[in-house]
């Protein structure tokens, strides 16, 4: 869904605006997401949004979750997140783009694709990049 939004908007707005729409889209999903009455803490949203939109690796805990390395996720979790691992797994499985998580190959490909996209935007002349909304 996130790629379809980006593709549709590419014809009408600047590349930076498309990325902002993606950020807001993921933020809205996080805001409305619960799993068995649990939610992802707001302090973790930035890392998730940056990962999904820009391919910027989050901290060790979230990186372990997106790589589906649950043993490492347990090891890296803080006192709050240790009880929310299934919530994160559910979010990435049900709400995030399917190619952004699941195994090392997918995660590495997502990182590379998002980084290439961001570099392409940065390489545009400033007047074509567009202003941030």
What does this structure look like?
The chain is an all-alpha fold. The chain has one domain. The protein has helices at residues 2-10, 15-32, 45-54, 60-66, 70-76, 85-94, 104-123, 126-129. Helix 1 runs antiparallel to helix 2 (15-32) and helix 2 packs across helix 3. It starts with a helix and ends with a helix. The mean pLDDT is 89.
Overview in brief:
64% of the residues lie in helices and 0% in strands. It contains 8 helices and no strands. The longest helix has 20 residues, at 104-123.
Task: From the structure above, extract its key features.
133 residues; mainly alpha
The percent of residues in helical segments reads 55-70%
How can the largest sheet be summarized? none
Overall morphology: globular
H/I helix tally: 8
Mean pLDDT: 89
H/E series, N to C?
A: HHHHHHHH
Tally of extended strands?
A: 0
Strand % is: under 5%
Secondary-structure-derived class: mainly alpha
Radius of gyration: 15 Å
